[in-house]
Each structure stands twice: as C-alpha cells, then as structure tokens.
Amino acid sequence: MSDARWLAAAAALAARARPESRPNPGVGAILVKHGKVIARGWTQPGGRPHAEAVALAAAGEAARGAVLYVTLEPCAHQSARGPACADLVCASGVARVVIGCMDPDPRTCGEGLARIRAAGIEAAYLPSLACARSLSGYLVSRRLGRPEVTLKLALSLDGCMAMANGESQWITGPEARAHTHAMRARADAILVGGGTLRTDNPRLDVRLPGLAARSPERWVLTRGAAPDGWRALPSPEAIGAMEGVQYLFIEGGAVTATAFLAAGLVDRLLLYRAPILVGGRPALGDYGLARLADAHGRWSLTERRRLGSDTLEVYESSLCSPE
C-alpha cells in the first residue's frame, strides 16, 4: 500500500480512541515492515499511553527497520504522565516515520519531526485529509479555541423537524436513530435548547450494545440554571469555556440550531432526511442571511449514504475551517 493509504488506515484506527482519550487527541499509529502490519496502537483512555508508545511497545525489537505511520506528529514535550513520543521513536530503531498532521501544540509543532530527523531517522510529513478529519476536534480546539461543533437535524422532505402540534417522535427510522447514537458515542458533550429539554426531557444517552459508557456530557443552552445531571451553556459564543470538550454534538431544537448557525459556529452538518411530508414546524429560523447569494459556497457535501428508508448527508463548513 502507499503511504497515503497507510495513513488512512491509521486514521481509521484512531476512531477507537474517541472520545475516551480526552483531554488528549485520539491518535492512531501503525508499524509496517516488509509490507505487513507488525503492531498498531491508539491513544488510551485518559490520554496515556499515546498511540506511538502503544504500537512500539507491542512491536518490541521487531520495530527496528520498520516504518511508523502516525496520524499526528509525535509529541516532543516532557510530561509527568509519560515520556515524549519523539524520544521513544528515536530509541526504537524504526527506519522511517510518516505523519499525516503537524501538531499545532507549540510545545511540539515541528520539534517532534526535527528531533526524529536529528537522530538519523527519515521522517516525512504527508498531509492527509483522513488524518485531519480523524483529529478535527483537536485541531479546531487548538487553532480556534473552541470545540468542533456538529449539528444534527432529522428532517422530512419538506424541511420540517416536527408536526404542527410539536410531535417529532419519530421523523426518521430505526437505522438513522441507531446511527445518531453512534455519533453521540463519538462526542464529548451533547447539547439541546431549553425548550427541547422542557418539552421532550430527552435522555441523550447512547443506547447501543457495549457503548452505554460512552454517553456524552449533557448540556442545555440556557441563561438559567441547569437541572441535575445537566450543565448550562449561556450562549453559543460560550463554547470556548467548555473545559475538556473537543467534540460538541447539537441535537435540537430549531431555536438552538438557528442560534449556532447565526453565530457562525457550526463546523459540520448531519442531515437525516426521511421520505415523508409533514407540513409542520421548520427545522431552522432566520439566522441572518442578508441575500440569497450569501447562502452559496458555505457548505461542502462530504458523505451521503442510505440508512434504511432514510438518507444521511454530511456537510462541512467552508467558513469555520481552522486552516
């Protein structure tokens, strides 16, 4: 396989770390020798050991002469919780290192690769979209000082999220709802508006076998106090103060979705479309577009798939890019 494909494989492996690796990023690492994987690793719960440390420990002496593929530049700073991964790499005997993302952390940025090269090991930075997407929450939090925000909307064909009387369970079918639960399991925090909380009293947990422990923290958008088991966010702009949150998942309702869009704080859209016509309550209100022309060019389709009778479309914002 090519370097790019090995990096994509490491990025897929990194998904196992999310979100339990927080406050550290979820990183994936693969050791390859003679075209075969000899070891792999991902960031462990609580952030340590790092992916490289896990893979190198698993390989032992077999790491000598191998190629290490890692989604993020190996860390170069010392920590009481463990050694710098760049130093572990230097001592491992690997012949080559390929990374998919530079680390924006000023304690490492460029220093990790420099230290590895100074040890006589070939080290290459190969920009990888797959790696960047696997680290999106970490990269956004480092560069923009806030979590990555994913807005989920379950819609009818006519853009409604509920009947005129407010009934909304269920717009989409069981396959789409199961997918939503899988997305919840990848988030650090999940947020709804005060109206949704009062009307629906949602559980917002993960109800998939084996993943219940990955239910995210529950937040409500309100200027008042949050009920027991919830945390309050006074405004969309306050997300930068959500300590330890890299991935924020927003599920409702229309007022909250509109507020985050109006603030320019939505990085990713998950649109679950059901093949039904409702003629009820629209999913969004006026979020401040002055002209229709301003709506174009803001979103790029990155994925489309069928989920039972429903369709999922994933869009990324061109306005919130951390680059």
The major sheet is characterized as: 8 strands, mixed
Number of helical stretches of at least 4 residues: 9
- Category by helix and strand content: alpha/beta
Name the overall outline: elongated
Question: Average pLDDT, to the nearest integer?
Answer: 91
Strand content: 15-25%
User: Strand tally, please?
Assistant: 15
Low-confidence stretches: none
Strand order of the largest sheet: 10-9-8-11-6-12-15-14
- Our measurement of the CA-to-CA distance between the termini, rounded to an integer number of angstroms, reads 29 Å
- Order of helical and strand elements: HEEHEHEHEHHEEHEHEEEHEEEE
Q: If you compute it from the alpha carbons, what radius of gyration comes out, rounded to the nearest whole angstrom?
A: 21 Å
Percent range of helical residues: 10-25%
Walk me through what this model shows.
The protein has about 325 residues and is an alpha/beta fold. It has nine helices and 15 strands. It has helices at about 5-15, 50-60, 85-90, 110-120, 130-135, 135-145, 175-185, 195-200, 255-260; strands at about 30-35, 35-40, 65-70, 95-100, 120-125, 150-155, 160, 190-195, 215-220, 230-235, 245-250, 270-275, 280, 300-305, 310-315. The chain has an eight-stranded mixed sheet with strand order 10-9-8-11-6-12-15-14, with helices on both faces. The protein has a five-stranded mixed sheet with strand order 2-1-3-4-5, sandwiched between helices. A two-stranded antiparallel sheet has the order 7-13. Helix 3 (about 85-90) runs parallel beside helix 4 (about 110-120). The radius of gyration is 21 Å and the shape is elongated. The two termini are about 30 Å apart. About 45% of the residues are buried.
